[in-house]
Specification:
- The chain is of the alpha/beta class.
- Helices cover about 40% and strands about 20% of the residues.
- The strands form 3 sheets. The chain has a 3-stranded parallel β-sheet, covered by helices on one side. A 3-stranded antiparallel β-sheet has the order 4-5-6.
- α2 crosses α8 and α5 crosses α7.
- The longest helix has 18 residues.
Length: about 270
Amino acid sequence: MATLKDQLIQNLLKEDNISQNKITVVGFGAIGMTCAISILMKDLADELALVDVMEDKLKEETMDLQHSSLFFRTPKIVSGKVDIFTYVAWKITGFPKICVIGSDCNLDSARFRYLIGERLGVHPLSCHRWVLGEHGDSSVPVWSGANVAGVSLKNLHPDLGTDADKEQWKEVYKQVVDSAYEVIKLKGYTSWAIGLSVADLAESITKNFRWVHPISTMIKGLYGIKDDVFLSVPCILGQNGISDVRVTLTPEEEAHLKNADTLWGIQKELQF
């Protein structure tokens, strides 16, 4: 006897259950949850897979999202379990280096643009600049490339970002570094900004936008770096991975970027 579904729907072709755009979020704490929500709000995938070692937590969050499906356009939300996590994805997966990235300075740069825009009274989308290198305290603010509508801020104000700057623009970068600590101090963790930053990268990949993002990639051979280290530099990001964009840095900025040697000192001790 035909089921209700069979009576209601007549398929002229065999259903294809293969996902065309599947995104997996591994780790479903505060950051993983906001990554998932941000991805859902942007309609980036036809299947969202959630993975975590805490099965009960994963189940309850997955069910909660599934019950919200009417308000999203992602038709399939599933969950799974993983026992071992590793932060050395490139070594473990064997993927080409152009397909392994880290979100690192994409968020630092967004914070930088926001704070510059706040001070100038200009929307962050119109403020262009990079924070490169290692995410956090050791990152490198590229003041030499900061501009609004193509107008170089450094040409207008040569002391920009230096100790001699009477306007103390260096404090803007300090705010970038301190902002995560401040948010953690106030609410216990950061989540929304990093979640939206990850969704921003996912959108560039799934829709092949080829936007330029400051993201972590293997930079051996660039800026005088000779070791297998991953640092954030501007990259074109699309469905086939990344392409490096070589930006011009001042000698001082390039010297700060070369602090990657400290990362290699840690990495070379790792055993696989």
